Amino acid sequence: PPSSQNNEQGSTLRDLLTTTAGKLRLGSTDAGIAFAPVYSTGTASGKSGRTMPNILDDIIASVVENKIPPNRAPKINVKSEIKEEPKDDKKSIQDDCSKRYSDIQYSWICDKHVLWLRDHKNTNNWKLFKECWKQGRPVLVSGMHKKMNFSLWKAESISLDFGNQQADILNCKDSIISNTNVKEFWDGFEDVSKRQKVKNGETALLKLKDWPSGEDFKTMMPARYEDLLKSLPLPEYCSPEGKLNLASHLPGFFVRPDLGPRLCSAYGECVAATKDHDIGTTNLHIEVSDVVNILVYVGIAKGNGVLSKSGVLKKLEEEDLDDLLRKRLKDSSELPGALWHIYAGKDADKIREFLQKVS
User: What is the Cα–Cα distance from 112 to 342, expressed in whole angstroms?
Assistant: First the structure.
């Protein structure tokens, strides 16, 4: 191509599309779109005619025609590329990591599907995380609460500061939502006797959903917002200003997902007063973006019918837990706060098919 054309070629996708669109001849369309369509001539009946193409196809066609010299067309050897793909991603990543990241304390848990980073202070954690993130694998980082101001996250502290606020409270058992004073929720967080009762006299399993969220969180709870930001794991990816956090670098004309933070609080369900102990406080769902969940506080309930710590541990041991997690439960310094069921993204279609059969 002419040298002047080379100088105009953009270095980013946005520049490329802009410079390309600027050189296209204006085409007259019913929609009034100022792009030059690439028309196909001739029809099945033999009459000449023109069909309206996809605008993006026009731009790509122009890029291919005007930007890439014939002698620089890329050569693709599909056969050789397929051979380079690892046969067992899980095995290859583990073998590779054991050699390259010997300075990082980590384990593989949940049948080696989940990476457990055991030292939250290691500044090289992000390098190993990157290998799992590329494959959409969940990662657990323990010890993040040690960097936080514990007093800010206690139930009584939040109730004292924001008890007069109104919010939606969800009864996880029968999905009744009510707009009520959040003090009622927090007063019952660690005292079962102060919790709401449902019609049959059972203790309600309540959840304070996404209160507060996003900019409201930052405005309403500035001290807690700052405490949360300084405690984020893998800040290169998770911090709003992280150099590898794609969302923080999106141009202003993109509609960003709600990046939070959101405070999600729920009662524990290991209470004898609740007959059904298999109620989840979060429904099965798919997130629209990658999510960081930090367990900031675990309340220990008191009152009639509450399981002791040993009873809670016994209940958790009945679950299909990884051996390393079972060992962690027996550590007296550890306090279990949540039981998660996480499914691989590649299995989403199987789960949908199952749910459709059930319904």
Answer: 13
pLDDT attached to residue 204: 80
Cβ atoms 151, 174 nearer than 8 A: no
DSSP string across 86-138 = -S-HHHHHHHHHHHH-TTS-EEEETTTTEEEE--TT-TTHHHHHHHHHTTT--
The span from the CA of 41 to the CA of 24, in Å, is 19
By mean pLDDT, which of 4-13, 34-43, 218-227 is the weakest? 34-43
Angle 155-157-163 from CA coordinates, rounded to 5° = 85
Whether the predicted pLDDT of 206 surpasses 90: no
Q: Could you report the per-residue pLDDT of 101-125, keeping only the tens digit for each? A: 888 899 998 888 899 999 998 989 9
DSSP state of 332: T
The sheet carrying 206-208 orders its strands as 176-181, 166-171, 206-208, 265-266
Give the Å distances, CA to CA, from 32 to 38, 56, 141, 149: 16, 16, 53, 58
CB 129 within 8 A of CB 115: yes
- Give yes or no for a contact between 247 and 257, defined as CB atoms under 8 angstroms apart: yes
Q: Where are the domains of the chain?
A: 95-141, 147-307
What are the tokens at 67?
Answer: 């930007």
Query: Which long-range contacts (C-beta less than 8 Å, at least 24 apart) are formed by 313-320?
Result: 315/270, 315/277
Torsion angles phi and psi, residue 301, rounded to 5? -75, 150
DSSP class per residue in 33-83? --S---PPP--TTS--------HHHHHHHHHHHHHS-GGGPPP--HHHHHH
Give the gyration radius of the chain's Cα atoms. 28
Is 147-307 CATH 2.60.120.10? no
Q: pLDDT (tens digit, 9 = 90+) per residue, 304-329?
A: 667 667 777 777 777 888 888 888 88
Name the pLDDT band for 198 (thresholds 50, 70, 90). Answer: confident
91 has pLDDT over 50: yes
